[in-house]
Amino acid sequence: MKKKSGFSIHTLGCKLNFSESSYISSQLIQSGFYLSDDPDLIIINSCAVTAAAVKKTRNLTSKLHHQHPEAQIFIIGCYSELEPQTALQWKGVVQTFGTKDKINLIKYLKQSTIPEAPYFYSTYSLTDRTRSFLKIQDGCDYHCSYCTVARARGESRSDSIENVIQNIQTIANQGIKEVNLTGVNVGDFGRNHGTSLYNLLLKIEELQLIDRVRISSIEPNLLSKEIVDLIAQSQHLMPHFHLPLQSGSDTILSEMKRRYNTKMFADKVHYIKEKMPDSCIAVDVITGFPGETDLLFNETLNFIEQLPISYLHVFTYSQRPGTPAAIAPHQVEATVKKERTKQLLDLSKKKKKQFYQSQLNKTRPVLFEEINHNNTTLGFTDNYVRVKTAYSDDKVNQIIETLITKDMLVYDDPDS
Ligand code: SF4
User: Fold this and answer.
1) Cα of 95 to ligand 1 centre, how many Å?
2) Could you tell me which of 5, 157, 237, 406 has the fewest CB atoms within 10 Å of its CB?
3) What is the pLDDT of residues 328-345, one digit of tens each?
4) Ligand 1 centre and the CA of 348: distance in Å?
């Protein structure tokens, strides 16, 4: 495909996908392609983490084909890794690229050839002036019984520390103040290079290349005390943790093939809070895993209720083809799953309110963004409280020590 064309790119799913889409987009623009509302080429970076995500990918493809019947559609990412033949049957779809070779779409569009997929490629987003998502790791060697992500993304592999540092420097050179280290299993960073996430964070702390660094999510068993201690004494590593709990029942955790139990999880949370009482701890939970009785769900509810966590990301379990959990007995009724999700979302609201209110009348550094809605701008504190204040040009992309007051708190931000 030698002729340069207008393209649009659409991203579903995780921050890793957003980072990769941003990279693909900037590479195509550098090669002479241009973003267009009436595209010749449509790229859909798909997600397959839940049945709902697959449905969204299919619906989006159909909608875009309907709007742009002449455009060539490329499905890339997790869905096309798992079910490329199905994706190729969707109207308008001309080619698929899985997760390992999605980066090859760039070369394919430039030269109509598909080179060999690299073992690991780093990407970072540059669409936002204040923060960037930097991919440092990909794939996963765990085999959680409900998960298709590990299959879609392949084995665990990471960037080198040197390359991550170089990428952070490049991001900082653009004037971006915050970088979010992303991956599928970030805590596993470095294992294939004989190093570790701790060593990377130590290097980042030593070099101080950028004002703020966040870690997107870390498996509880991989969050060591030394990482928590390092973050606790750092000005650059943010006191903000994202921990996938998935269930507060040891019976369910064992069925899920997770690598921790509730005691280990609770110990980690308490240790973080002991070292950083104001830290934010976001927690992922899945409702309606096969075999989750009312009793076991209540264990989860009670476990979360008594933990000092800040808010939840709640996912309703859906059967993913090819996973052991999909064929497990005692699947939970859809209405029951829905009700449990609602209960956890209500608990999350309560937790978030408590956490936000615990920050009132404290002074925290806020990174303000380039948003000017009704003369207000939004920002995040170091400990991930979403706040708003009157807009002024000189606040944009600045970190400002700010007294947090009641009318500044933004509870329902989709980004937090
Ligand atoms: S840790 Fe488990 S849930 Fe997360 S990507 Fe790996 S296999 Fe999937």
Assistant:
1) 28
2) 406
3) 999 999 999 999 999 999
4) 23
